[in-house]
Amino acid sequence: MMSVSLAGKTAIITGSNSGIGLGVARALAGAGADVVLNSFTDSPEDHALAAGIGQEFGVQARYLSADMSNPEACRELIAAAGRCDILVNNAGIQHVAPVESFPIAKWDQIIAINLSSAFHTTAAALPMMRAAGWGRIVNIASAHGLTASPFKSAYIAAKHGVVGLSKTVALETAEEAITCNAICPGYVLTPLVEAQIPATMAEYGMEREEVVRNVMLARQPSKQFATVEQIGGSTVFLCSEAAAQITGTTLSIDGGWTAL
Ligand code: NAD
Fold it and tell me: Which of 81, 145, 151, 154 is most buried as measured by Cβ atoms within 10 A of its Cβ?
């Protein structure tokens, strides 16, 4: 694998006390970036997680609590970090229901956390990137930012919105050393997904392998989950010099889902 040094850069990763966000934070720290972890929980475990990453990779690692459903809190997170060379908008939630009975509060919450937070953090981070003369924005969208499934109206609308926002920010920064792209993962094996396997096995009366292949990965032609390490490695790549002319586009990590 190519070696990328992000030493001296500060990366803020929203929603990074678990799953993909944590994997991305670890990958960026592994490349030498100082990292700011975030969630809304503010528990001793969150702070310990950041301290552990700092020790493991020899970088500065902090945890800053901020609720990404709150516009002011999104902007204050960036201000509190004091510097932002790399912004990874990752915080996200899901809710599944038919459109006619989709709870209004859930729609508003998903649009706020999965889409609007990226607008607010980007607006706050861009002046810092411009002052530093360099910046990378990586938005964690989804295969559902490019294609749809039933019963996920808010999530799919938000993720398509994230792809559109990424293109717009890329055009507004095109002549500067700043890029903005969206990563579109298919199904990624996070603790949350892993935890769904036993219940799905019981529901369908299937073995683990059958559930993974025929239920969970039904639309992922590779029949393999993507990993948080792969999402992290791709984020590091988008932050590298090799990716300096990659902007305003999407990077699918979906085992062929969107080729169908
Ligand atoms: P996860 O539940 O493990 O992580 C979500 C993160 O967002 C957590 O750190 C959580 O604390 C944080 N978060 C939730 N609400 C928040 C709020 N109000 N304020 C601040 N932080 C908040 O899930 P994940 O699978 O790691 O998902 C991370 C991102 O990747 C999401 O945007 C998700 O849509 C996207 N994604 C996941 C998959 C997958 O298969 N796991 C596939 C495609 C895209």
Answer: 145
